[in-house]
TrEMBL record:
It is found in: Secreted, Extracellular space, Apoplast. Residues 388-438 form the Beta-galactosidase beta-sandwich domain. SUPFAM superfamilies: (Trans)glycosidases (SSF51445), Galactose-binding domain-like (SSF49785). It catalyses: Hydrolysis of terminal non-reducing beta-D-galactose residues in beta-D-galactosides. It comes from Theobroma cacao (Cacao). Residues 655-731 form the Beta-galactosidase galactose-binding domain. This is Beta-galactosidase. The keyword Nucleotide-binding does not apply. GO terms for molecular function: beta-galactosidase activity. Residues 1-26 form the signal peptide.
Length: 750
């Protein structure tokens, strides 16, 4: 009895093991090891030159992922890179989410399925223009916590999250040695920029983070970016526009470029940055020319900051980044195509690049130089019997002159090099690619074509309290000004914004009552002064109401407020609405940054002196009524008491708008033009598209033509001057069905 039971168990076990093995092995790769030497990552025993494409999975929808990965592969990527997003995965402490846009495992598996490798930058601080740099806002409330330093509560929380991620990936067999795509991990992010602010504790924290990461035994190497003191087994890597001069802190580590900034992000009211592809290709060719081995595009696809995920303050909803694949998932030409050609040329050089330990340097002119990779390699002869020796040779010829072309002689042959360019010679003789010569795809502008089916959302024009061009189908609900629910509370004094909202909403209402005497009124008239609200420092947006009337608006990042206000005699309600527009994602001491008001807050100009508002009793209310009623969801919106919007309606300061429309047929991306709106948030069928704000970029500072030559900075080659920074908002969910209405769409804007 015992024996047969045991046998049955053994059979079951072996069957189970067999299935496991065949599924894993067939799906991704045969298990392989990843190590490194001074020259490169060593993948399955071979040094590799790798091109990596940065795609942040929650900045796209899961429906877009396969296409984005396929386009990266077709563009010549070997690796897909992403951060993880702690606040997306653990919105409430201890409650993890790995679903929808946050389905990390699915994303990594799709990458593995397509035969690409994965670089996962866990952080968990990530910066990334992402809300609070990826930190969950509840982390501020952990007693005694100080972020990113040698602080026990912080280290405990960080270790818990990083362990959770590594364990999850291991369980899902996603590491290379398990046959998965993950070849490399990152701990922390650019801590080197902050370390000095933390003194000795910062240094200790770096060591702790490194040991903690290594202790998780993930079985693949770890990097730390911009970390010159990265300890022993951790590879320090470069993030910059150019990394060709970069040397890691040990001769045993390879040169890796974790962030090649191929564009840049922007803020509401900012211009749109553009990095010319000739310069980008130059930077990449120079990197491989001078010994680099892995380059990751930050970003290959930037995507969208959905909902309230945008960091800040003030970063816009689009995270297009001027990346080779644009926000809509379309190829941005000529960037994508030119880089594809570059990747192909580098691929042709790979045998020589990995075989030679060091390049041979040759000066070709005052600002011209060559690096030649040459080696004898052993290849198997016929029938694997004899080993033959074959020589491989590849070269890069660079002209770093920003103005002039140069003709150089290299190994007896003459080459003409345009200014600020590199020619790639995979056989040390013939030019396969020059970074400044963009191929035939230059003129193809797919973005315009694909956006033509942009639906014209019925225009809402809100200027000087007028509403025009409103179609019959628009409905509206006014949002109350001030305290709207029993969930308010009263407190003697000023509370810090985030301590109250916990970032569950951008909005925090503060209400107090001010008494104005006859004598005050006379005093103001006689002296021709008006009372003034003065706040030492404020972020991000403040709206001031007196008795329900909007009196003033201020926006900025820790700016002083000096706002004249008008009072009648008697009691008045003074309402301050403080708003965040993306929490700080960069800098030291993030846990102390907070939002709302700092320093003194007072009303000046009263007969009996200033009124110290921080001493008064304030009633607080988090968020808007519509937000908490979930007015934007398919289930709840009907309950909101919508009324038809009339052409001559005078909008209140805060209004919810709703309309139905049919999305156009076809697969082309569709965007809303919200250029006529003010500031708010938009939803479609319950999906939060993001914040919108119709701020206009300065008129000047854009150049008509963009000269690719010379070192790039984000102020070079700006576009979009004098226009709203963002007026198109990508409708990712145009195919969501709504209660049997087929593809009928419902939009709600605030
Ligand atoms: C880097 C940072 C990234 C991102 C980038 C700018 O310094 O590591 O996360 O913020 O800057 O886009």
């Amino acid at each position: 009895m015992m024996v047969s039971e045991k046998r049955a168990f053994v059979q079951l076990l072996s069957l189970y093991l067999f299935i496991q093995f065949s599924v894993t092995a067939a799906k991704f790769f045969e298990p392989f090891n990843v190590t490194y030497d001074h020259r490169a990552l060593i993948i399955d025993g071979k040094r590799r030159m790798l091109i990596s494409a940065g795609i942040h999975y929650p900045r796209a929808t899961p429906q877009m992922w396969p296409d984005l990965i396929a386009k990266s592969k077709e563009g010549g990527a070997d690796v897909i890179e992403s951060y993880t997003f702690w606040n997306g995965h653990e919105p409430v402490r201890g409650q993890y989410t790995f679903e929808g846009r946050f389905d990390l495992v699915k994303f990594v598996k799709l990458v593995g399925d397509s035969g690409l490798y994965f670089l996962l930058r866990i952080g968990p601080y990530v910066c990334a223009e992402w809300n609070f740099g990826g930190f969950p806002v509840w982390l501020r409330d952990v007693p005694g916590i100080e972020f990113r330093t040698d602080n026990e509560p912080f280290k405990r929380e960080m270790q818990r999250f990083v362990t959770k991620i590594v364990d999850l990936l291991r369980e899902e067999k996603l590491f290379s040695w398990q046959g998965g795509p993950i070849i490399l991990l990152q701990i922390e992010n650019e801590y080197g920029n902050m370390e000095r602010s933390y003194g000795q504790k910062g240094k200790d924290y770096v060591k702790w983070a490194a040991n903690m990461a290594l202790g998780l035994r993930a079985g693949v190497p770890w990097v730390m970016c911009k970390q010159t003191d990265a300890p022993g087994d951790i590879i320090d890597t470069c993030n910059d526009y150019y990394c060709d001069g970069y040397k890691p802190n040990s001769p045993n580590k390879p040169t890796i470029w974790t962030e090649n900034w191929d564009g840049w992000y922007t803020s509401w009211g900012g211009r749109l940055p553009h990095r010319p592809v000739e310069d980008l290709a130059f930077a990449i060719a120079r990197f491989f020319q001078r010994g680099g081995s892995l380059m990751n595009y930050y970003m290959y696809f930037g995507g969208t900051n959905f909902g309230r995920t945008s960091g800040g303050p003030f970063y816009i909803t689009s995270y297009d980044y001027d990346a080779p694949i644009d926000e809509y998932g379309l190829l941005s030409e000529p960037k994508w195509g030119h880089l594809k050609d570059l990747h192909a040329a580098i691929r042709l050089c790979e045998p020589a690049l990995v075989a030679a330990d060091l390049p041979r340097y040759m000066k070709l002119g005052p600002k011209q130089e060559a690096h030649l990779y040459w080696a004898n390699i052993q290849t198997n002869g016929l029938n694997n019997t004899l080993s033959e020796s074959q020589s491989v040779c590849s070269a890069f010829l660079a002209n770093i002159d920003e103005h002039k072309a140069a003709t150089v002689t290299f190994r007896g042959k003459s080459y003409t090099l345009p200014p600020w360019s590199v020619s790639i010679l995979p056989d040390c003789r013939n030019t396969a690619f020059n970074t400044a010569k963009v191929g035939a795809q230059t003129s193809v502008k797919l973005v315009e074509h694909a956006l033509s089916p942009k639906i014209s959302v019925p225009e809402l024009v809100m200027t000087k309290n007028e509403v025009s061009s409103i179609p019959e189908s628009w409905m509206s609900v006014n949002e109350p000004i001030g305290i709207w629910s029993v969930n308010n509370f009263t407190f003697q004094g000023m509370l810090e914004h985030l301590n109250v909202t916990k970032d569950e909403s951008d909005y925090l209402w503060h209400m107090t009552r001010i008494y104005v005497s006859d004598e005050d009124i006379t005093f103001w008239e006689e002296n021709q002064v008006s009372p003034t609200l003065v706040i030492d420092s404020m972020r991000d947006v403040l709206r001031v109401f007196i008795n329900g009337q909007l009196t003033g608006s201020v926006s900025g990042h820790w700016v002083k407020v000096v706002q004249p206000v008008q009072f009648q005699q008697g009691y008045s309600d003074l309402i301050l609405l403080s708003q965040t527009v993306g929490l700080q994602n960069y800098g030291a001491f993030l846990e102390k940054d907070g939002a709302g008001f700092r320093g003194q807050i007072k009303l000046t100009g009263f007969k009996n002196g200033d009124i110290d508002l921080s001493k008064l009793s304030w009633t607080y209310q988090v968020g808007l009524k519509g937000e908490f009623q979930k007015i934007f969801t398919i289930e709840e919106n009907e309950k909101a008491g919508w009324t038809k919007l009339k052409r001559d309606a005078t909008p209140s300061t805060f209004t919810w708008y709703k309309a139905y429309f049919d999305a156009p047929d076809g697969k082309e991306p569709v965007a809303f033009d919200l250029g006529s709106m003010g500031k708010g948030q938009a939803w479609v069928n319950g999906h939060h598209i993001g914040r919108y704000w119709n701020l206009v970029a300065p008129k000047d500072g854009c150049s008509k033509s963009c000269d690719y030559r010379g070192a790039y900075n984000p102020n070079k080659c700006m576009t979009n001057c004098g226009k709203p920074t963002q007026s198109w908002y990508y409708l990712h969910w145009k195919r969501t069905t709504y209660r049997g209405h087929g593809y009928r769409q419902q939009t709600i804007y605030l």
